[in-house]
Amino acid sequence: MAAPGKGARTDRPGSTRRQFLLGGAVAGVGAAAAIGLDLALDSPSTAPASAPLNGDETVPFFGAHQAGVDTDAQAHAVLVALDLRDDTDRDGLRRMMGILTDDAARLTQGVAALADSEPELAVSPARLTVTFGFGPGLVDRARRTAPAWLKPLPAFGIDRLRPEFSGGDLLLQIAADDPLTVAHAARMMLKDARGFAAVRWTQRGFRRAHGTVKPGTTMRNLFGQVDGTTNPAPGTEEFARVVWSEDGWMAGGTSAVVRRIHMDLDKWDRLDRSGRDQSVGRYMSNGAPLTSSPDGAAAEFDEPDLDATTAVGFPVIPTFSHLRRARSEDTAEKIFRRAYNYDDSPTGSEVSDSGLIFVSFQADVDRQFTPIQRRLDELDLLNEWTTPVGSAVFAIPPGCAEGGFIGDTLLT
Amino acid sequence: MAAPGKGARTDRPGSTRRQFLLGGAVAGVGAAAAIGLDLALDSPSTAPASAPLNGDETVPFFGAHQAGVDTDAQAHAVLVALDLRDDTDRDGLRRMMGILTDDAARLTQGVAALADSEPELAVSPARLTVTFGFGPGLVDRARRTAPAWLKPLPAFGIDRLRPEFSGGDLLLQIAADDPLTVAHAARMMLKDARGFAAVRWTQRGFRRAHGTVKPGTTMRNLFGQVDGTTNPAPGTEEFARVVWSEDGWMAGGTSAVVRRIHMDLDKWDRLDRSGRDQSVGRYMSNGAPLTSSPDGAAAEFDEPDLDATTAVGFPVIPTFSHLRRARSEDTAEKIFRRAYNYDDSPTGSEVSDSGLIFVSFQADVDRQFTPIQRRLDELDLLNEWTTPVGSAVFAIPPGCAEGGFIGDTLLT
């Protein structure tokens, strides 16, 4: 196992993939993958050292945790949920996860998969990660006990769920800073999964491109809202406590809640600036919590002053605001959000079909996610403009060591 | 007019938008836009000069030609075709194009549009360009004579055209290196167009992200094929001859052919490496024309040897290959390709729905594009794996000067 090196990203300026692979930080990268690199056609590792390419950056695959959870979110993601075929039994699951693990271990290191028919599309990993999730149906098929939280979320009053964006036995979260890399990896892995499972739904999302804004900038969603300010920081003790499970075959794993949230941008347009600030409880301009000082005097990471009141005695941060409703006094009710925007082709008289692929990771859905969502369901002014149209819960099993496969704690 | 500066890109290393705007290369950038920059919230021009951000890069809007034709293709594009509302007359067209030109002039320079409800999403232009195209219906509505080539292409035997990807009165080609920038610009402009026209179709495409591979690398499509090797180079005399029209209200403009080409990746997978090389007439590995020497001895930009034969006397570059069929002895039959990949959500048992948004620019569709397409329709082995499912032709009017608007040569 290569836990210590696992969280390290390799996108430091000046590093090339070759330098990384030959350097000291190789923990967790398979030797086979490293050798395979030199066989890859058009390898960008031949680029001059003076021009490091983001396409060459890799995130280690093997380790205590799967990549794609604590990995600084890449620009592009496709989330695919599959349904197992009727004849895929425990043995079939083992074979499927062996093959898909091998694909992911190679592709994430910029090496073509076995029998990859377009190997030239594999040579720019661009921080590719593949994260596997298991739905209740898969654990059942494995004839093992699922964590208590591995089930559909309770029905919320605001939900208008559509089956084509809900549920699923197997999740693939495939993310990279390059959309061609994502497309190739997704196709390659879905071809290899085809004998065992069929695509149930696909959701494509994006954030700012690599290099558009300064690293570490909190994302904005299509409402223009700064989204994710209160996230625990990967690498911290708090992050570990919030995210990683310690239970049985899930130890080192986590859970993923994937909710497709349609955002009614036309209706949002009818809300003025101040109304938007009040709904969110933060300034649209910079994401700072509302204060009694003028807009701009506060900063994004300021602690909200929940006791502050206006001159006429109303709370500065309204009781109906998203900030206040999402917040809990209970420190256990904390999640790690890793969302993507979506912007699909509109139908009818709309000019856009947009929203958020909400993805959160937490050790225990029931204890951490559901209480927050219950409060938001009861009252959150943002509900006026947002509608959950898809929902799914997956167990994200731990990472694996070289020679192992994702899910081996469940399937062996 | 700012013709000389028009083709210049500003993505040279070390430049920031502010440096660019204050520097000598400001030709074509409106003073209003430059001033507006300092009003933009969260302006990335405050980033330290040591960390130039690709998000800050701009492509000038005003000039003899519209941007987005000779602009080095950005990573993301959305092409939207609109149908004019019945009551949009010549006067309405003038108003519509005035408003949309103003939006594009601002947004491409990183400045929020007038009444932009998410101004924070406008501050990272990331080489945003907006290119307008006029379909036959729009020129008709303007009560002017269309160029003879401004009509649907002749029916080709390989076509399986679907109305939802064909035709249209107005084209917006919105492209940038950042997908959030594209989404915001598209929504902003479609809101402003809504009173005059309704969305007919939307196509989203991508290439390699900015920074994934070395600048100037020819794109690969989802077949893995190097795509666009024989393009004339922007800025050359050949490019000007191939692309820019000199006729009447179209002088300084061009034409766009937009064809949605579905690529059957499952069927392509059944073709071996050598079969792929033969179909294209180029090596998949590096895009070089086939030679009698071993794969790898040739380079992408080598001149094809059409007379070379194999040991048994067959042409090295097969007669049915795409390279040979697309090629013409007639130097007039030349186009400039600027395509995007698409990868949409599959339906049924497919694991992908992928293809190419083929976009070509040429001064005269009938003289340059149609003869090539006729030859490919008659015989091109690639037809086995590709199906045109959408087709549209647009007149791309010339650029405009500050104070003018796109289409002013047609509408005033």
TrEMBL record, chains A, B:
InterPro entries given in the database record: Dimeric_a/b-barrel, Dyp_perox_C, Dyp_perox_N, Dyp_peroxidase, TAT_signal
Necessary cofactors: heme b
Name of the protein in its database record: Dyp-type peroxidase
Spans traversing the lipid bilayer: 20-41
Native species: Microbacterium marinilacus
Residue ranges annotated for the Dyp-type peroxidase C-terminal domain, each copy included: 219-400
Signal peptide: none
Family in the record: Belongs to the DyP-type peroxidase family.
Domain of life: Bacteria
Keywords: Heme, Iron, Membrane, Metal-binding, Oxidoreductase, Peroxidase, Signal, Transmembrane, Transmembrane helix
Family matches, as PANTHER family: DEFERROCHELATASE, DEFERROCHELATASE/PEROXIDASE
Pfam families: Dyp_perox_C, Dyp_perox_N
Residues annotated as domain Dyp-type peroxidase N-terminal: 66-207
